[in-house]
Design goal:
Mean pLDDT: 88
Order of helices and strands: HHHHEEHHHHHHHHHHH
Shape: globular
Strand content: under 5%
Strand order of the largest sheet: 1-2
Distance between the termini: 49 Å
Largest sheet: 2 strands, antiparallel
Radius of gyration: 20 Å
Number of helices: 15
Helix content: 55-70%
């Protein structure tokens, strides 16, 4: 048996600042929502969001040529395993592996050099965060590494629940809320946010040879892999465009259904914890913009950075406690 010096695990003010900066640079909306979280929940919130940024960046780092995955995916899977080992360290579940010689002491302790891990460790200690929610987030991101297009809408919903709903479950725990009714609101809100996020990134993912819209909503022979960011319509026929709009509409409707369910039941969430659901606000705003664009994901109005409107909507929701 071995143990790491507890002083090595403790986070510092710089660790918190590092995580906040990371989220601010890579997840602007998540950063703004965090500023409005209850003060006592803020450190934990940014630790969780920083972990999510780190995990999401793994797939972003993968490069492919000619539609084929390159050998770098192996290195990226090693990065995923590093984060799994770090989680095990945070929850004290790796001691037996070291004792049995399954992992070196240096490898087991290297995670404590990472500011995200140190802040997450404090968040787990202070709020008794559920390991399974963190694992589901990691496992979903890992499984998505080699996915270019999901097969069904049900798979997209599962992915959204494992990622975005898990983030909301953990945010509620950071605010001291462990309640089945509140978790049901988080379940629906997370699915809605996840589906909208997929649509928001569709234009850019199509340019990378990926399609965030499931196969069952779009013809298998749809030439999504031929698009480029400079002129995304260059390879599209009028029929292709209509097919894409119909698919975006159906996916939007499913997202709206889950977000509506969350809105209808939000009163069960304790008032002090309602800022946990601020990420719903940008999702609802984008759905509104998408509807105005007639579900054309290539409409340039969807790229407009209407930050003032976003801030006003977040502020109103924070003041009223209603999204």
């Amino acid at each position: 048996y071995f143990s790491v010096d507890e002083s090595v695990k403790k986070s510092t003010k710089k660790d918190f600042e590092y995580c906040v900066d990371l989220v601010q640079n890579r997840d602007r909306e998540g950063y703004l929502c965090g500023l409005l979280m209850p003060r006592e929940a803020r450190r934990s919130y940014y630790a969780i969001r920083a972990l999510n940024v780190e995990l999401a960046s793994i797939k972003d780092a993968r490069k492919s040529e000619g539609g084929e995955f390159d050998a770098a995916s192996l290195a990226l899977k090693i990065r995923v395993q590093w984060w799994q080992d770090a989680l095990n360290q945070v929850f004290g579940d790796i001691d037996e592996q070291v004792a049995a010689g399954g992992i070196s002491l240096d490898m087991a302790t290297s995670c404590w050099n990472n500011p995200v891990v140190r802040l997450l460790n404090d968040a787990v200690d202070e709020n008794n965060l559920t390991k399974r929610f963190l694992e589901r987030l990691l496992e979903a991101r890992a499984a998505d590494l080699d996915v270019k297009q999901l097969a069904t809408l049900a798979e997209a919903i599962d992915y959204s629940e494992n990622t975005f709903s898990s983030l909301l479950y953990l945010s509620l725990e950071s605010a001291g809320v462990r309640d089945e009714s509140a978790d049901t609101v988080a379940y629906n809100a997370g699915i809605g946010i996840g589906l909208v996020t997929a649509l928001r990134g569709a234009r850019f993912r199509l340019a990378k040879g990926e399609c965030p819209i499931p196969e069952e909503l779009i013809a298998k022979g749809f030439p999504y892999h031929k698009f480029n960011l400079e002129d995304p319509r260059s390879e599209m026929t009028e029929g292709d465009m209509q097919m894409l709009q119909d698919a975006a509409f159906e996916m939007s409707q499913k997202a709206a259904l889950h977000l509506s369910e969350a809105r209808e039941n939000q009163s069960v969430v304790p008032k002090h914890a309602r800022p946990c659901f601020l990420p719903v606000v940008p999702a609802l705003h984008h759905l509104s913009k998408l509807e105005k664009a007639k579900y054309n994901i290539f409409d340039d109005t969807l790229l407009e950075q209407d930050q003032l409107t976003g801030l006003l909507l977040l502020g109103r929701t924070w003041l009223t406690g209603v999204f």
